[in-house]
Specification:
Number of helices: 15
Number of strands: 20
CATH class of the largest domain: Alpha Beta
Distance between the termini: 35 Å
Helix content: 25-40%
CATH architecture of the largest domain: Alpha-Beta Barrel
Largest sheet: 6 strands, antiparallel, barrel
Structural class: alpha/beta
Strand order of the largest sheet: 12-13-18-17-16-19
Number of domains: 2
Length: 479
């Protein structure tokens, strides 16, 4: 199974040198190779798979390296320009790799005074090659996705950019070969969530597989005693139980409801595993307290456990938000299903949350379950998951589409703040996105997002912008 938790980006590194220098400056090649090895060590700090760090100074060597990288299905190629190097030495090889290219030039600190020599300046690296490199890829019809220049050592700006590119490449790797299930139908009347499955494959490279409710019900009804015990042990270990609150929609937890939710969790897990799903967008109503209604309304524990494993699940059959959750999870930031819920105008706070699915990895404390006498806006009753994400930086990431069906990312970076939220059996977080919350909500709404989004920890806007470049999607950054 391909999931965002086990995917590691495949990275190629091409270290390029200018061969005319070698007879002129003895020892320079070795010095530049050493600089390149240090650059490679910067990439190795991240959770990626480096499939080669190759020094090239001829077109032939660069082309051979590019063909090798292509055979290894590299997701991203860093072309590190060790000093001035003519673009004809590496462009054809980089293009042969068949993947996005990031151009990098880093320079060691130098003193431009005293007895600084030409060889010491050349060995330190330079900015001279950077305009030529960018120009060469543009004119070749395959623009590089980024150009990074800075200091070789201890440059936080450079290191942050490299980290974001590694995270973005990991998100792309997680989508290669991925299958996203579609179960049931979108919540009736939610027009913003409708989508064309083929357009999902075109834009994101994932396949949409239609799975049947009767298959899920079969797995729930066929849950063995051993499977049930294993799942109940997992639920009892992970969650704390909450009594009903003052809200009349809540109720005390009933053992039979927990047992049923655990059976549904087993069935959902088997559905995902047997269909090789990396994500699932689902919604089903059912009628008259039928088995379909009872299953569909009691998936919250199971879908939260799966989402926490990096297998994104989105309720109300919101496939676009399912993809957003999967991507933020692949970035290492988690991804809970959420919407704008309530507004505190006096404190410029918007309460962000939903009845789930939830990503328990980003909870501020041990998550809880609470009994519900009704599922808000849906059929059924049972138990639901409740927590708030940890305080500090957070990012909302939505995926929207316009009237032409073109997709875009919508991003807002803010802060999760501590404070009271209504205990109604939902995950709710106090979100601060700067002054004048009404202006923010207007801007967010006009950006063409769905009314759901992925709620993630950390500020991930820069990484999402890079994912957008790799997918050819625009990114609308609200705040």
């Amino acid at each position: 199974m391909i999931t965002s938790t086990n995917a590691r980006a495949r990275i190629g590194i091409m270290l390029a040198g200018h061969r005319e220098y070698w007879p002129q400056f003895p020892g320079l090649k070795e010095e530049l190779i050493k600089n390149g090895e240090y650059f490679t060590s910067l990439i190795a700090q991240h959770s990626v798979e480096i499939l080669g760090s190759v020094f090239v100074d001829t077109l032939e060597d660069a082309y051979a390296a590019g063909v090798q990288f292509k055979s290894q299905d590299v997701d991203l190629l860093f072309v590190y320009l060790t000093t001035y190097v003519s673009s004809g030495r590496y462009v054809q090889g980089a293009l042969a790799a068949g993947c996005p290219v990031v151009l990098v030039g880093l320079q060691r600190p130098i003193l431009l005074e005293g007895e600084t020599t030409l060889i010491s300046l050349t060995g330190a690296g330079s900015p001279c090659q950077m305009p030529e490199a960018w120009n060469a890829f543009e004119r070749s019809g395959k623009p590089a996705v980024d150009l990074i220049f800075g200091e070789l050592y201890n440059d936080k700006r450079v290191q942050t950019k490299l980290a974001d590119w590694c995270r973005a490449a990991t998100a792309i790797r997680a989508m290669k070969g991925a299958i996203f299930g579609s179960l049931g139908h979108t919540y009736e009347g939610m027009l913003d969530m409708n989508y064309d499955p083929t357009s999902i494959t075109k834009q994101f490279g994932v396949h949409v597989r239609f799975v049947e409710m009767c298959e899920l019900v079969e797995y729930v009804e066929g849950c063995s005693d051993a499977e049930l015990k294993r799942k109940l042990d997992e639920v009892n270990t992970i969650f704390e139980y909450q009594d009903k609150s003052f809200d009349p929609t809540t109720k005390d937890i009933v053992d039979d409801d927990v047992i049923w939710a655990a059976r549904c969790a087993v069935g959902l897990e088997n559905l995902v595993d047997n269909n090789n799903l990396s994500g699932l967008a689902y919604y089903y109503m059912g009628e008259n307290n039928s088995i379909y209604e009872r299953v569909a309304s009691n998936l919250m524990i199971g879908n939260s456990l799966l989402t926490t494993r990096g297998i994104a699940l989105a309720g109300e059959s919101d496939m676009k938000t399912c993809l957003a959750m999967y991507i933020t999870s692949a970035l290492g930031a988690g991804g809970s299903f959420a919407e704008l819920a309530y507004t505190d105008f006096a404190n410029d706070i918007v309460i962000v949350g939903h009845d789930g699915p939830h990503d328990l990895r980003i909870s501020d404390k041990k998550p809880t379950i609470r009994g519900l006498s009704l599922m808000h806006g849906k059929k059924g009753y049972g138990v639901s998951v409740e927590f708030s994400i940890r305080t500090g930086p957070m990012t909302m990431v939505g995926i929207g589409s316009d009237m032409h069906g073109d997709y875009r990312f919508i991003v807002a970076e803010g802060e999760s703040q501590a404070g009271w939220v209504p205990p109604i059996g939902n995950t709710l977080t106090r979100g601060y996105f700067g002054p004048d919350i009404a202006d923010f909500i207007e801007e967010w709404s006009k950006a063409m997002t769905c009314h759901h989004m992925s709620l993630s920890i950390g500020h991930n806007g820069a990484a999402i912008e890079k994912v957008g470049k790799l997918l050819g999607m625009p990114v609308v950054h609200i705040r």
